Amino acid sequence: MASGPLRFRTPHIEELATAQSRQTPGFAWVAVSGGQGDPAKNWGTSNRKRQRTSLGGQTEQQKEALSARQQREIERKIRDLSSDNSKDARELPIPKRDGSSSGGGGAARPGKTTNTKRILASGKTFAHYLDDEEAEIIRTGRRDVDLEAPTQSAAQRPSKTPLHRRKVRENSAASVTPEPTTASSRPPPKLQTAQSSSGPEVVEVPVDSLADESLRLPTEAELEALLNAPPLTYNEARSAPPSSGAPAPRRFCETCGYWGRVRCMKCGSMVCSVTCKDDHDQFKCLKMYA
Amino acid sequence: MARQQTDHAPSHFPSRTLVLDNGAHTLKAGIASPDSRPDKCHTVPNCIARSHRDKRTYIGPELTAECDDFGELAFRRPVEKGYIVNWESEKAIWERSILDKKAPRDLQCEPQETTLVLSEPPSAPAQLQRNADEMVFEEFGFAGYARVLAPALSSYAPSPFASTAQSPSGLPLECLLVVDAGHSHTTTTPLYHGRPLHGSIRRLEVGGKTLTNQMKELISRTFDVHREDWLVGEIKEDVCYVSQAFNADLERVWKGGRHDPRRPDASVVVDYVLPDYETIKRGFARPHDPSVNLRNRALGIGTEGGRREHILTIGNERFVVPELLFTPSDIGLPQAGLPSTILQSIHSLPASLHQAFLANIVVTGGTSKISGFLERLEAELRSMVDSDMLVRVARAEDPVRNAWLGGARLAQSREAMEKVTVTRRDYLENGEGWVRRVFAGKTGR
Ligand SMILES: [Zn+2]
Ligand SMILES: [Zn+2]
């Protein structure tokens, strides 16, 4: 199976009989969307269309504003859930311990060399490093780690490595395509195969053995090419969204965690029942405006 | 370059090797020895924690050795998204854990006489690799150094598949797909004879910390635990499980609507007795007792020895939280679940290799210890691939220390070590760019 649809063991939420916008003050009954549609295309702010059809009793502008706000809210929540440090703890001072050279106090900045002084004093976060790298890829078309070793060292190497191996490595490194990538457009990882390289080791494959590609074992050269493929960047390695045909995202009651079946028109939260709606109205609603 | 070769002569290799799997949550450290067993490995909190109660700051191992009250601890972690980002705090933790006089005797080492095997997650930004290399040689002064992908270290650990012949120390498994479910994220790495297939590595951005943070949010709907990272981490470890039938489990614990109230299934709902860090040092779960009067319990009425018990009732949170590994869209994360992420890795390889990797999936990392994780992963993978394909999934015997154990076994083979290690002299002669190319496998040796 090359890339069949994602099959979840759990059926998605089915529509309730009461669905069609029966108006309760402050609430719209929401048609919880089924499995149709391409969720991959519905991520980000482009899911407004789907949101629009699922909300009743509001003007277009209200709905747009609500869904944009919900989207920002989701993104904020994911950021919070991914945070490594406790709130405000990033700058937590480090006390000095006996026998260690770290911590403040001394006249000199910590660090034994200019490099390590700079590294130790750096307040950069991961996001800064990631931005720097993405900017470098856009500027130069490659990461410096992808560069091949200086030619003289390659030439002077004693030939411990078999020739065909070195050939593949040079080819795969030389063909690192200067292709700027962004988080939104993630190119499929390139598989460097012997067929696409121009070195002397190109493998001639008999035509009839190509009939069933899946049974043909990779040649040693192909394997070497795979092993020498450059690492993906941080953004490229991220798991892709669910395939088209996957069930629409599930919604949960924000009060008790059961299925979310009713959407609050004021804040967009989902609840499961009148009981949870009451609780929501009394204690939780409008929190987003606070 | 000929002179270069002599630098790798065995005589230049330090005899001691420190294996350090520098995880975001804990670092796993130990000196490799011929009988490298997991119990030679120290597991140390990789954080600096500040207590709002006793106003003390705990560095790394001090937290487990000296801290009695884990309430309201704020954590500063040097590792962000799996990578060492803040070297100021990491240096303080390494010194306290490994290098200074207070470090455990069997860990203490003189960097000038030691080779460091340091783990790294896949897809690291180059500048962070450069920082690590410069710190290791210029600040700590290690004599030898190998920066290795953590999943590659895992390929040197013993195979968890009973039917697979055990390879001797220093020899990696042939075909292996390592699923590393760590604190920061979950990565899927296919390896061939211990060498990662870089173009096929994928990362699902759900890890132990995502689950803990989500647990914090859900519990805080009824009881504010936003400042209780440590406690919520323990609750997660104690009560969470991966559901094998999510919809059915969710039905079982629903309290019902106003007109059709239901009694939640008592086999799922638990009462969690919170620690007070005086009489109750660690919280624990027990079956839910609906007759319990929470106020009386809090006053110490009807409790064991009259102690005050604060109870948190936990229902669907038990399985809704770890469900994020399988259905990240539950929090709106635009990434496929873990089984599908594994298939993204495998399907990026030639079709003829699919079977070998599908049949050799090894799960490591602390998050993989959640009950039901392995069964659900295998069942979902099974349902997603053709029925004539063999799917085998196994959890490493010690998922937290598996990469460390692999590193310790790698260190037993001089030949394998020479391939991955750079000496301080190499670094001084060839510079950090050359060193980084060696670790990237771009410079053969
Ligand atoms: Zn509810
Ligand atoms: Zn509301």
Automatic annotation (TrEMBL), chain A:
First and last residue of the signal peptide: none
MF-aspect GO terms: zinc ion binding
GO terms for cellular component: nucleus
Pfam families, A to Z: zf-HIT
Domain HIT-type: 249-277
CDD domains cross-referenced by the UniProt entry: zf-HIT_ZNHIT1_like
GO aspect biological process, one term: chromatin remodeling
Biased composition (Basic and acidic residues): 70-99
Bias-annotated ranges (Polar residues): 150-159, 172-185
Keywords assigned: Metal-binding, Zinc, Zinc-finger
Superkingdom of this protein's organism: Eukaryota
InterPro entries per record: Vps71/ZNHIT1, Znf_HIT
Span list, region Disordered: 15-124, 141-203
Name used for this protein in its record: HIT-type domain-containing protein
Organism: Salinomyces thailandicus
Automatic annotation (TrEMBL), chain B:
Cellular compartment(s): Cytoplasm
Record's keyword terms, sorted: Cytoplasm
Family annotation (InterPro entries): Actin, ATPase_NBD
Domain of life: Eukaryota
GO cellular component: cytoplasm; nucleus
Main location: cytoplasm
CDD domains: ASKHA_NBD_Arp6
Listed Pfam families: Actin
General function of this protein: Component of the SWR1 complex which mediates the ATP-dependent exchange of histone H2A for the H2A variant HZT1 leading to transcriptional regulation of selected genes by chromatin remodeling. Involved in chromosome stability.
Family listed: Belongs to the actin family. ARP6 subfamily.
Subunit text: Component of the SWR1 chromatin remodeling complex.
PANTHER family given in the database record: ACTIN
Protein name (database record): Actin-like protein ARP6
Organism of provenance: Salinomyces thailandicus
